[in-house]
Amino acid sequence: MTDTPLLEVKKLNKSFGPVQVLRDVDFSAYAGQVTALVGDNGAGKSTLVKCLGGIYSIDSGDYYFDGKPVTVHGPRDAAALGLEIVYQDLALCDNLDIVQNMFLGREIKSGLVLDDISMEQKAAETLASLSVRTVKSVRQHVSSLSGGQRQTVAIAKAVLWNNRVVVLDEPTAALGVAQTAQVLELVRRLADNGLAVVLISHNMNDVFAVADRIAALFLGQMAAEVRASDVTHSQVVELITAGRSGDLGLRQNGAAA
Ligand SMILES: Nc1ncnc2c1ncn2[C@@H]1O[C@H](COP(=O)(O)OP(=O)(O)OP(=O)(O)O)[C@@H](O)[C@H]1O
């Protein structure tokens, strides 16, 4: 495991009008690792990832990618760095098949016509590289897929474009037990393939099943960034609900200390 972050923000601040939502937030994501971003409702998780993805401009703070300072002024800048966010609503088109969804807006063309064979091959290769076996045909319409399969397609779409950081917003929120297990396996595989994965989750079982690191936001401040192996479920719950955990000692950043 490398200890140099692929993506890092320092002292990030973000307000909406008079309301300061993120205060001096430090956050890092590492290649080959899953970083769980946890926090109560309204703690600032979505706002943080939208700042990372250039959807919200930041008020102040430093953004580093591959150890170098970068400026992210919009989603295109984040996409150019290789960062993709997979939102809860997945933004898939029901009336299109898997290949069409994966290449939507970025179709491969041969001259003026769509190169369906290349796109089909690449879609199938991407799913195979992620060991996805639940999808029978890449020509299946997305409307016919289960929730877990849809999540899988959205994640595969995110990795198709050589992204280096993939942010997953509650990927198992709407799934049953078996599909949750499949999606978590996929999340783990993304990291094992070298991607930096950021997993927003409220589910402690999911977090401990796949995360290498846990970053806990509390009322817009980073309460702690810790290795998952260094903390217990109840310590993380304390960080989420109280912003601190009495017996975590110096490893936490001390937002509410
Ligand atoms: N566009 C906005 N304008 C004003 N306030 C906002 C805006 N977006 C978010 N907020 C506020 O910022 C705070 C953090 O919201 P955010 O959605 O980032 O939290 P979250 O941790 O993702 O919560 P949840 O788990 O419920 O999705 C909340 O108090 C929210 O009301």
Automatic annotation (TrEMBL):
GO molecular function terms noted in the UniProt entry: ATP binding; ATP hydrolysis activity
Domain (ABC transporter): residue spans on this chain: 7-244
PROSITE patterns: ABC_TRANSPORTER_2 (PS50893)
InterPro entries membership: AAA+_ATPase, ABC_carbohydrate_import_ATPase, ABC_transporter-like_ATP-bd, P-loop_NTPase
Coiled coil: none
Keywords on record: ATP-binding, Nucleotide-binding
Protein name: Sugar ABC transporter ATP-binding protein
Organism: Dactylosporangium sucinum
Lineage of origin: Bacteria, Bacillati, Actinomycetota, Actinomycetes, Micromonosporales
